[in-house]
Amino acid sequence: MNNLIILPILIPLISGVFLIFFSKNIRIQRWVSALSSLVTMILAVMLVHQVKSEGIQTMNVSNWEAPFGITLVSDMLSALLVLTTSIIGLTCIIYSFRSIGEDRERFYYYPVVFFLIVGVNGAFTTGDIFNLFVFFEVMLMSSYVLIVHGGTKIQLRESIKYILVNVISSALFVITVGFLYSVVGTLNMAHISQRINEVDESGILTVISILFLIVFGLKGAIFPLYFWLPGSYYAPPAAITALFGALLTKVGVYSIMRTHTLFFSHDTGYTQQILSVLAVMTIIFGVIGAIAYWDFNKIIIYNIIVAVGIILFGLSTMTPTALAGSIFYLIHDMIIKAALFFLAGIVITITGTSNLRGFSGLIKPYPGVGWTFFLAALALAGIPPLSGFAGKLLIVQGGFEGGQFWGAGIVLMSSLLVLFSVMKIFIHGFWGSADTFKGDDKVPVRALMIAPIVLVALSVLYGIGTEFVMPYIIEAAETLSDPSIYIEAVLKE
Amino acid sequence: MEILMAFVIGILFMAATYLMLSKSLLRIIIGTGLLSHGAHLLLLTMGGLKRGAAPLLGEHAKAYTDPIPQALILTAIVISFGVTAFFLVLAYRAYQELGTDNMERLRGTERNE
């Protein structure tokens, strides 16, 4: 029993509720949101430390014993993801101070951001399948509000599609939970896992596992369920897109990881094969989109899809090496995607367009933006000293160990095309003559640059300090590859 | 009883899918309403439709119906209620701003982005 687990959910919730009462006072909004997200981050660091020193932490809400009440479980994977979420939440709030505009700030912007973080942190921490659904809805409701916040025409148009897709996937989630409940008769994730192992070799479980894959695949944008993502993520302002790109799809990926390692470890051949084919197709369609577009935002958006594919490919091989690689890559990708979307927002502030044909030569007046983007681009592609390298290396290594040579080869090839797509931005946008974008006076970007610089620095440190973070990643991967650790921690037989 | 419910739920899902594939935004929202009805009925059916008293301890019955699916449905109903209210207001706003409820005309093209 340990109340530290619930604090990264509770503190954003309380500050979100508190901020509703002071919606017109921007000074209070900014101070409270910066402070409380800083506190959340510190608590998340403490949580990671505690999980490292004392093993998996569980908390039975209101002291009901494990299968009967809601249990919050923090193993290393969820603790690390909660920490990453808190870091991204903090940088996003700092970035919003200068970029989001006072009209939006007055209209409950910060409270909704906090409710989004409540949903994401809750989804990472919960140990109950229906509670996962509820936290998904908390997250999605906030994302509906954020995607349409400001009410421009493109936002209204795209949010209709976004909401429709998510309403359908939520209904599917309820249906799937209904099926699972009728088979196993419990909702606690550890208990479900235990009972699934008892009934075993039942065809209906494979059907349910594919249904879960469809549900979380719709949230996490895997092939062929990614169609809604490029349009929806194109609509909102940069700070919100960064929050979405870094967090929302990754919650879907996390849920696939959790359900497929914890629940459906009985008949792995069939589901793993489907997962691996879908992951490879996701990578292929993602890179096709990434190299096809001449638009800063669209290229980054398609790179989200590529990254989701790479992480799921690592998961589908089910070797401990590739699992560790997937977790490493997941955290790297959350950080670097947020940084890239922040930079895209800065470039749009400077040039007024995200079309790569509309500007060039940014490196001369804005060297800081240019070199930060260059570092972020190299990290995204996985150049050795930076953070994208170790994760992809482990995934490829695990793919070869698992005998999936084609998939591992495609992961390697995709890095080349990802590098091509981001270098296209760098060459066409930052090199060349500096007189092709509008506005002669320099736009002040120093305050906006804090967030991307912090994130890129973090990603460089994450890459250089691989030796330091690896024990944490390995521990997270161990829990995934051996569900009995999780079950024993929750049910305490 | 469960077989009958399964057919009814199937028909609800069928109607929901048909409505959601149509052009008009209001039909789509009606489709989401039917879809959530189907999902809630399915939760109730999957929890088992055996005979028993309502889950109130004052009933002093030998057997009660399963209270868990009922709690789950109650949660799912208020969530889908909130989402539907938001969706309806959004559709109203979109109609005011964009001047159409035809999904075919709510497309993004290079020119109007």
UniProtKB/TrEMBL annotation, chain B:
GO cellular component labels: plasma membrane
Matches recorded under InterPro entries: CPA3_antiporter_subunitC, NUOK/Mnh_C1-like
Primary location class: membrane
Pfam family, one: Oxidored_q2
Keywords attached to this entry: Cell membrane, Membrane, Transmembrane, Transmembrane helix
Parts of the chain that traverse the membrane: 6-21, 28-48, 68-95
Membrane topology type: Multi-pass membrane protein
Protein localization: Cell membrane
Domain of life: Bacteria
PANTHER family: ANTIPORTER SUBUNIT MNHC2-RELATED (PTHR34583:SF2)
Record family assignment: Belongs to the CPA3 antiporters (TC 2.A.63) subunit C family.
Protein name, per record: Na(+)/H(+) antiporter subunit C
Naturally occurring in which organism (per UniProt): Bacillus canaveralius
